[in-house]
Design brief:
Helix content is 32%, strand content 25%. By secondary structure, it is α/β, with parallel strands linked by helices.
Length: 195
């Protein structure tokens, strides 16, 4: 019997993306870690550090499994945008993104059984259209900004606000599938292990 896969995330989007490529985690084990940004830390470093922290936290309870952690950071230059929990913060994020390019960085970390953690960061450039006041109000009224990095979900109503992306679409949703599959495969995980 092969090793199990543990997803160290509460994100329904990450679970759906894994299922899209035929992977069903044996366990979904969200972790509670401090996601405070470290002063001077680059967005890519933050994404990697938090992904590794999530995988490491879950691996302590599942030492014989492959543990997958991920974290997504939305950044304008070196400025990291929050995951808004109020409308004023979401409005500020979207106003900043309006008419501009920004980058979405997702750190992916895998803690394999009895081995050292490995991680990667995928980056995608996203360009928003210039948002009119009515468009911004309508998007905020929908509420899908809640808890989303940068205040938007590309797989939802925000798709109509995005002029272009360069890079991985699944990365912007929350899990870069190409990098995730390459990392798992390189560490010896095989689909169907544990079943």
């Amino acid at each position: 019997m092969g090793a199990r896969l543990v997803l160290a995330s509460a994100s329904p989007r990450r679970l759906a993306l894994l299922r899209q490529v035929g992977i069903e985690p044996d366990i979904v084990a969200p972790t509670e870690i401090d996601e405070t940004t470290t002063p001077g830390e680059s967005p890519t470093a933050t994404a990697r550090r938090l992904a590794e922290a999530k995988a490491t936290a879950a691996a302590s309870a599942h030492p014989d499994a492959y543990v997958l952690g991920a974290d997504t950071v939305v950044a304008c230059g070196r400025r990291q945008l929050p995951k808004p929990d109020d409308e004023a913060t979401a409005r500020a994020c979207l106003a900043l993104l309006s008419g501009r390019r920004h980058r979405v960085h997702t750190g992916v970390a895998v803690h394999p059984p009895k081995d050292a953690i490995r991680s990667r960061v995928a980056s995608t450039t996203v360009t928003f259209k210039r948002l009119g006041a009515d468009e911004l109000r309508a998007y905020l009224r929908g509420g899908e900004w809640q808890g989303k990095a940068g205040g938007y979900a590309i797989q939802g109503a925000a798709a109509a606000l995005i002029r272009s992306i360069s890079g991985s679409y699944s990365n912007v949703v929350g899990l870069p599938l190409f990098e995730t599959m390459a990392l798992l495969s390189g560490l010896g995980y095989r689909r169907g292990d544990g079943r």
